[in-house]
Amino acid sequence: MALEVRNRKPLPKAETQKFENYALNIDKLLRNKLEAAQRAHVVSYELSEGNIVFSTDAVLFELIDIALSQYFNKLSEQNCNVKVTDTFDNTGVNRTKRVYRVIKADGVRYTLNIYVTTSRFLLNGKNCMEFLEDDMPNINAIEDFLCVSNNIDLKVFNDLLVEKLTEFLSKQSTNALPAAGAAITINNCREDSDKCPGCNRACKTNSVLCTKGSHWIHYHCQKLKKMKLNNWLRLTTSRFAVDFVKLLTQVHRLKR
């Protein structure tokens, strides 16, 4: 369950912050972003249990995220009630979700959920069509302006993202930890039931993939010390930041 913290003074971007009880799975995030970068460079819509889900490519997602922030900040100055909630993993650094709850002066209301890790949006509420017809054109106009004014080519950025992420994930599956001989793939929440050769139990949590034996094994069964594991995690996150975040430097400058 997420821990909710309400601030006495509203944050510049979010009135409420929530913190999950897990650390973001970097490997899964990378693969999700790779999948998103390979999508068609358009916004696709689908209905899901009465909600509207729309997906974008990885770079367009970042632009729309910025455009939404600018648009709703302006909307909140026009007698509209816009409540913003950000959700982070347990490090407090990685934002995984943002929620806009909007109530306009004329009674129009809806909720827009932004899923950072999957580059998707979910819209619900009784006035979803008003958002699509009235608000989305203005948001698209902001996004178009950001592209033109900053010379952002969606195809070029996404192709570069695919190239770098593929290269990074390939290295991730072949490199090994010096002491343990295990791949740098670390898993804290597995859904399958690979057996650990050390204890013969399922490796559902706290396990690593050994490239020499092609099997999963628990941290404690591999005798990985906590300090060494934490140091490796920091190193992996640092490499991820260099190889991935650098690709979107020009886009993220727009948030300043």
Write down the overall geometry.
globular
With strands numbered from the N-terminus, the spatial order across the biggest sheet is 1-2-5-6-7-8-4-3
Q: How many DSSP E strands?
A: 11
The major beta sheet can be summarized as: 8 strands, mixed
How would you sum up this structure, described in words?
- The chain is of the alpha+beta class.
- It has 2 domains: 3-151, no CATH class; 156-248, no CATH class.
- It is 38% helix and 24% strand.
- The chain is built from 6 helices and 11 strands.
- The protein has helices at 26-37, 58-76, 128-149, 154-174, 226-243, 249-252, and strands at 3-6, 16-19, 44-48, 51-55, 81-88, 95-103, 109-115, 120-124, 182-187, 207-210, 215-218.
- An 8-stranded mixed beta sheet has the order 1-2-5-6-7-8-4-3, with helices on one face. A 3-stranded antiparallel beta sheet has the order 9-10-11.
- A hairpin with a 4-residue loop joins strand 7 and strand 8.
- Helix 1 (26-37) packs antiparallel against helix 4 and helix 2 (58-76) packs across helix 3 (128-149).
- The model is unreliable at 1-12, 176-191 and 234-256 (pLDDT under 50).
Keywords, separated by commas or semicolons:
2 domains, disordered C terminus, alpha+beta, about 260 residues, 6 helices, three-stranded antiparallel β-sheet
